[in-house]
User: Fold this.
Amino acid sequence: MTPQALIFDVFGTCVDWRSSVAREVGAVLPRVDATAFATLWRAEYDPAMARIRDGGRGYVPLDDLHRENLHKVAGDLGVTAPDSLSHAWEKLDPWPDVVPGLLALKTRHIIAPCSNGSIALMTRLAKHAALPWDCILGADIAQDYKPKPGVYRASCAALRLPPEAVMMVAAHNDDLHAARAAGLQTAFVPRPTEHGERQTTDLVPDADWDVIAPDFLDLARQLAP
Assistant:
């Protein structure tokens, strides 16, 4: 089945969080290793969400988790960071193929993020990066975090589409495994420098995803009738 809608992972798949966050950190905290700070900040992302996914904490938007994690990392490094630095996650630059690829995909498909970012965060990020979404879906809709199946299904339900009519696009194999288990179609687009030049994860697909493409423009070509 040709998908009627494509939903996208954002951090890493659509935008280069590592370089972009490091740039913002460097501007505010010039005496720290900005890339190391960005990497440590991102490392707090999954543990913070895991407490919510596991039921140990009620749903908290990612904006608030980012702010909490900012102060944890700053404290661990012996520096003080202003709350405003947490807005670095709204200022992430897209990979070069993303905007033209999304515009090509948008001509035939509904396109939307299925991100762990809040609607507010995703809206501001879309304004910064010129991401031409039709709407914004994901964690705020589901009040939970990926890879919980309810997040993917809530995005499909919001579009009034069955999961099999929706394709999840991600650079992360674990995201696609969860989406497939929830009944969605899957597309893998690798981002081999998401974690820097020495990245060792998600360099290749680890399953027979429905589509495997080197970038969003090729994804659009493969999905064209």
